[in-house]
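User: What would this chain look like folded?
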Amino acid sequence: MTRTHEITTGIVDVGDARLQYRERGAGAPVLLLHAGAFGDWFAPVFDEPALDGVRLVEVHRAGYGESSTPETHLTFADHARQARTLLREIGIERATWVGHSSSASMALQGAIDAPEAVARLVLLEPAPSPAGPSSEELVRTAVGPAVGAAQSGDIRGAVDTFLIGVAGPDWAAVARQRLGVDAMERIVRDARFFFADEVVAAMEWTIDESVAARVGTPTTLVYGIAGVTKAHEETTRTLAGWLPNAELIALPGVGHSMPLEDPALVARTVADAM
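Assistant: Here's the prediction, encoded as structure tokens.
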């Protein structure tokens, strides 16, 4: 894709981490907060013309890309706090937060902790909490074996096991197509932090109906019809029923890798939600 917009990049000290980010455009601020396993999930979405009318910020969370690796454990609330601090440091007090998988749950936690900073939520297949009936199978066949492989030092095998389980057998081909021939090297590098720390944070994070009922932030919840597991759809549907100001959208032709599978569709979905 030919870029027609100027991109600003930088690294911001948020207190307990240094976060790499890039931004483009002017208008209502939109934060792209990437999922776990690797940091470039939203890289193709960042370039999509559907988002030309906003001030678009993409961040590498702590542990990913050129951002610093944490010295202590980070909770989902910590990741949300760091993102909020980064936005303030670049002059943004309130933004639409776009999250995907684990970062969708982080964005939701951000709206719980600091509702004044989150104008709207767009949540793409939040991580399975609350867990539906398909989550136990996902943990048994993908998450558990992947964590075991990572603990034994086989990060490449852990990545493959995990992402086949959540995104399907074609995930690596899609990643190379969208992110380049060196995508796997970057993914494996990022995944070390994911399996060492973020998987633990995901297991720690919970939300219930009483907490969700207090979230007044307008929220668009999105799931892909073509997913290989129903675990994320079940969570997305549950949250749509719990959150008082939520809409539910089902996207055709995509699954859990939707920012890579069809970045134009994801970008249009974000733009339409605003």
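Strands lie at 7-13, 18-24, 29-33, 55-60, 95-100, 118-124, 219-224, 246-251. If you want, I can go into more detail on any region.
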